[in-house]
Amino acid sequence: MGNVPTTVKHCLSYEQLIQDYPWLRRWLLQEKEIVPTGVKIQLIDMLSGTGLHVIEATSFVSSKWVPQMADHTEVLRGIQRAPHVQYPVLTPNLQGFQDAVAAGATEVAVFGSASETFSKKNINCSIDESMLRFEEVINTAKEQQIPVRGYVSCALGCPHEGHIEPSKVAEVAKKLYEMGCYEISLGDTIGVGTPGSMFKMLQCVMKEVPADALAVHCHDTYGQALPNILTALQMGVCVVDSAVAGLGGCPYAQGSSGNVSTEDVLYMLHGMGIETGVNLAKVVEAGDFICNALCRKTNSKVAKARGRTL
Amino acid sequence: MAAVIRLVNRSPLSSAMGQQYLALSSTAKVQAAGVRAGQALPEKVKIVEVGPRDGLQNEKTIVPTETKIHLIDMLSVSGLPVIEATSFVSPKWVPQMADQVEVMKGICRQPGVSYPVLTPNLKGFQAAVKAGASEVAIFGAASELFSKKNINCSVDESLQRFDEVMKAAKEAGVPVRGYVSCVLGCPYEGKVAPEKVAHVAKSLYSMGCYEISLGDTIGVGTPGSMSEMLEAVSREVPVNALAVHCHDTYGQALANILVALQMGISVVDSSVAGLGGCPYAQGASGNVATEDVVYMLHGLGIQTGVDLSKLMDAGAFICRSLNRKTNSKVSQATCKL
């Protein structure tokens, strides 16, 4: 099986994707190798030395659905954990949570959705059913003093339903927060959001969840990620998700970018005088490393510009 | 791997789970940049399309005259109010624009659309008017070194040259737009003082330019430096006579444009398909893509008069002609929404 985009690891029902998108099946079959475990470990170790506080290391979704993350246990055991850095892992259900803890996880994440259709296609159940599953995870995590981060997908639009009401995003975010997630990351899963829709959505969510418990997870598919992040910052959000080198395409927009690149986000934040504690040059190095390993070009404009400045 | 960036500040804070991290309000830092989300934005924004000139001038491939004309004609029916058509700089320096006269005479001008052309000096201005130009543009720089390397004279000397153009343009009733390059950084000097930008912008405005376009020539600006620069310039030039010309070399263009809008700017330059690389960062992108700007503006409820799908058609056409991929993310996305 070939390289699976990073977004697949945490977003999507793999089998459903393969069925709905034959091009994906063909693309995967063309790739010769999965990213070796050693490469993943080295990437995480490099990121651990950059000053980043949180590095999402792997996923305990069943390897039947996400074969790219089949080595989750070896990865978690192989990385050199830096002090003051968290390494959360995805856990879709109690089984995944138990496996994660057995492998040494000290923080986990659960993935809800603001779109019913996306929830059904992605994890094969309704939003309410998914909340029941997550409740099990969160309650067990509480007993073991393991923090849980909640994600809400499709916060600014859904590939199936289109427009998503901000009130629905607020409802799901509130539920996850009240169940015990310490932080809720609001994801623009298909990158269709703009500062306009980001503002309206956050206004609504902030009535239910305090700003300091919110994060934004913006995709750059339509080039809107940085202005969307800027809008979120202006509204008091101070946690931003991003991916080194902008790894991870968009399965809903063939050939398009997905995650916003960490390097470009850092460049903006530092340019605004905002401290992140992160060394940009070291993140660029980590990005160069993984792009060489994947034989692909970086999606980071900062990395591209720095590599070739006259 | 996904990273989570937590913003850092001075006061201590503990989260519910006992994690200590230096905390914030980012709001304080961001508000220091003088901007707020939800602040009243302009209802309308005028887009100045620079693809046919600034874009094509910086592409490696020289396109045939008919292709340029067809591109401009496609852009003319997309709703864009201003399309920078060509340049009357000597073809010895800019061979890509050698067909300036044929382009001006060949395009099908739409009523209500302006077609400004670059004119570096009086000779260029006279040639432009003879070829049918009814609006021109002149290019200053906020950096001395850039001015010397780019047009072989100091900033003050360039302003003197432009004075001749301004006088001739006034007599002929031809409006003149002024550009200031390197407003957020220079490839030779590095940091550029906002006061210098303000000085050059004020000079051009006082000479009679109806609008001053402030260019982040190497795309190094961020919302921080953009707001600092605009604060200085808007003390000297009214904000409704200002435009921003952002390059996306470091991916910051849309964020910078957003900040400019929040500060009252309502004219934005951009290039269809993000045409035009950056001569100072080989292989890197240059102009921000008009499609991506329009997508953001429409998402903010701001009117542009532009039909995004017709604009994307024009972008697709020129990319096919240049045999290159678009730099517009909106065009790249094939999301089934």
From TrEMBL, chain A:
<dbReference type="InterPro" id="IPR043594">
    <property type="entry name" value="HMGL"/>
</dbReference>
<protein>
    <recommendedName>
        <fullName>hydroxymethylglutaryl-CoA lyase</fullName>
        <ecNumber>4.1.3.4</ecNumber>
    </recommendedName>
</protein>
<dbReference type="GO" id="GO:0046951">
    <property type="term" value="P:ketone body biosynthetic process"/>
</dbReference>
<feature type="domain" description="Pyruvate carboxyltransferase">
    <location>
        <begin position="17"/>
        <end position="284"/>
    </location>
</feature>
<dbReference type="GO" id="GO:0046872">
    <property type="term" value="F:metal ion binding"/>
</dbReference>
<keyword id="KW-0479">Metal-binding</keyword>
<dbReference type="GO" id="GO:0004419">
    <property type="term" value="F:hydroxymethylglutaryl-CoA lyase activity"/>
</dbReference>
<comment type="pathway">
    <text>Metabolic intermediate metabolism; (S)-3-hydroxy-3-methylglutaryl-CoA degradation; acetoacetate from (S)-3-hydroxy-3-methylglutaryl-CoA: step 1/1.</text>
</comment>
<dbReference type="Pfam" id="PF00682">
    <property type="entry name" value="HMGL-like"/>
</dbReference>
<dbReference type="GO" id="GO:0006552">
    <property type="term" value="P:L-leucine catabolic process"/>
</dbReference>
<dbReference type="InterPro" id="IPR013785">
    <property type="entry name" value="Aldolase_TIM"/>
</dbReference>
<keyword id="KW-0456">Lyase</keyword>
<dbReference type="InterPro" id="IPR000891">
    <property type="entry name" value="PYR_CT"/>
</dbReference>
<comment type="similarity">
    <text>Belongs to the HMG-CoA lyase family.</text>
</comment>
TrEMBL record, chain B:
<comment type="pathway">
    <text>Metabolic intermediate metabolism; (S)-3-hydroxy-3-methylglutaryl-CoA degradation; acetoacetate from (S)-3-hydroxy-3-methylglutaryl-CoA: step 1/1.</text>
</comment>
<comment type="similarity">
    <text>Belongs to the HMG-CoA lyase family.</text>
</comment>
<dbReference type="GO" id="GO:0046872">
    <property type="term" value="F:metal ion binding"/>
</dbReference>
<dbReference type="Pfam" id="PF00682">
    <property type="entry name" value="HMGL-like"/>
</dbReference>
<dbReference type="InterPro" id="IPR013785">
    <property type="entry name" value="Aldolase_TIM"/>
</dbReference>
<dbReference type="InterPro" id="IPR043594">
    <property type="entry name" value="HMGL"/>
</dbReference>
<feature type="domain" description="Pyruvate carboxyltransferase">
    <location>
        <begin position="45"/>
        <end position="312"/>
    </location>
</feature>
<dbReference type="GO" id="GO:0046951">
    <property type="term" value="P:ketone body biosynthetic process"/>
</dbReference>
<protein>
    <recommendedName>
        <fullName>hydroxymethylglutaryl-CoA lyase</fullName>
        <ecNumber>4.1.3.4</ecNumber>
    </recommendedName>
</protein>
<dbReference type="GO" id="GO:0006552">
    <property type="term" value="P:L-leucine catabolic process"/>
</dbReference>
<keyword id="KW-0456">Lyase</keyword>
<dbReference type="InterPro" id="IPR000891">
    <property type="entry name" value="PYR_CT"/>
</dbReference>
<dbReference type="InterPro" id="IPR000138">
    <property type="entry name" value="HMG_CoA_lyase_AS"/>
</dbReference>
<keyword id="KW-0479">Metal-binding</keyword>
<dbReference type="GO" id="GO:0004419">
    <property type="term" value="F:hydroxymethylglutaryl-CoA lyase activity"/>
</dbReference>
